[in-house]
Amino acid sequence: MIVARLLYFISILLSCSFGAVTNNNEKNASCADGPLGISITKESLNIQIGGKKWDHNLNEFIESSIQEAIESNPENKPDIVEPTPEIDPPETDVKNVTLEETDPKHIIKQLETISSELQNIRNVCQQSECVSASSVGNLNNGDICNRIVGISKPQLCDASEDNTGANKNIPRNCKEVQERGQTITGIYEIQPNSTLKPIFVLCDMETRDGGWTVIQKRFDGSEDFDRNWRDYKFGFGNLKRELWIGLENMYQITAFEASELLIEITDRDQIKAFAHYKGFGIGSEPEGYVLNVLNGFSGDAGDSLTEHHFKNKFTTKDLDQDKHPNNCAVLFSSGWWFNNCHVANLNGKYLNIQAPVAFTGLHWRDFRGQPYSHAGSRMLVRPVRP
Ligand SMILES: [Ca+2]
Fold first, then answer.
1. Which of 242, 290, 323, 380 is most buried as measured by Cβ atoms within 10 A of its Cβ?
2. Predicted confidence (pLDDT) per residue in 6-29, tens digit
3. How far apart are CA 348 and CA 360, in angstroms?
4. How far away, in angstroms, is 348 Cα from ligand 1 center?
5. Predicted confidence band at 177 (pLDDT cuts at 50, 70, 90)?
6. What per-residue confidence (pLDDT) applies to 194?
């Protein structure tokens, strides 16, 4: 249905751009030649053609488009049903697309792509992957915002919080939180990139001088790590329990300044081992969140990442980017930087027993061996200071 709605504004655009190309009458004089710019956010639709701009409230625009379509052709009515309840997509799904084409066929193609993207966003939300306030019990809004990582946060926290970051000098990571005087391990607000909304993260202010942003944490198997791309991208879990901070957050935190990685693995006797990398970073989503910076290993857990996982893209059960003929994320019930498939998988099944089949658990080859399924892990990142 969204597609049908958007096709209506496509027709508006086309009538305009056709006019720009073929006519010089007064009506179309405003549609100057030049690039088309379309910006769709969860609230607004902004169209620019040449020097002219149109700004619309997205929902109002869609509704008025439907009404006009009905009035112009009553036969349209049976095809248009009452709009389904709208759930705002996460801000990070916002699409900004600039159209450079002036060929109407190309414009149609690109607009169809935009409408398809928008529909995908809404479909995902309507499939209830956006957590609703009611699904987290009787927590007040502050509790919800502090406890939930990733996908649901923008939706839940918009109404009562200023999440734009405007006029707020928010630290970019837990190291900056620490540098501003915070010395207690806990939940803090950071903003890795000034163009994105701030997020709440868990900061470890104690381990090895503190200032660590916790990007992965497991200790009791309470969180399901057998998840799809969307969840691994935006993050999931609970800041006070088990969590995955999200690949996009990980990218924003590590890609723009030198960062180190500390991995802490806890075996079933509560003995901890460490793997420290002086350099760590991942690529962007178009790069498959590839593990593209990993160097300077030290630690008593052994290096189970570099040889087999460095330079590999991230794979989930719905996005196979690994080198195995099948999908490693399906085979091992988790998302990870799989190769063919793995010698370390901290997101593997939480078994906390000897793995019935080698590699199936929370696994790190060089600490306790292949069939061993560990009882816990943490991944922490921190910017490297000169
Ligand atoms: Ca594969």
1. 380
2. 444 444 443 333 333 223 332 332
3. 6
4. 17
5. very high
6. 84
- Provide CATH 3.90.215.10 ranges for the chain: 140-383
In the structure, ligand 1 is a single-atom ion and the residues with CB under 5 Å from it are: 320, 322, 324
C-beta of residue 48 within 8 angstroms of C-beta of residue 80: no
Q: Which CATH class is domain 140-383?
A: alpha beta
- Residue 319 C-alpha to ligand 1 middle, in angstroms? 9
Q: Are strands 36-40 and 95-99 parallel, antiparallel or unpaired?
A: antiparallel
**Length of the chain, in residues:** 386
User: pLDDT for 149-165, tens place per residue?
Assistant: 444 344 444 333 344 44
Tokens representing 28 are 């179309």
Structure tokens at 37: 């710019």
Distance 333 CA to ligand 1 centre (A): 14
Distance 325 CA to ligand 1 centre (A): 5
Question: In this predicted model, what pLDDT tens digit does every residue of 80-105 receive, in sequence order?
Answer: 333 444 444 444 333 444 444 455 66
Cα 249 to its chain centre, rounded Å, is 7
CA of 253 to the centre of ligand 1 (A): 28
Beta bridge partners of 214: 380
Provide the β-strand partners of residue 201: 188
Contact criterion met (CB below 8 Å) for 50 and 20: yes
Q: Which residue type sits at 9? A: F
CA 339 to centroid of ligand 1, rounded, Å? 8
C-alpha of residue 93 to centroid of ligand 1, in Å: 26
**Are residues 156 and 147 in contact, defined by beta-carbon separation less than 8 angstroms?**
no
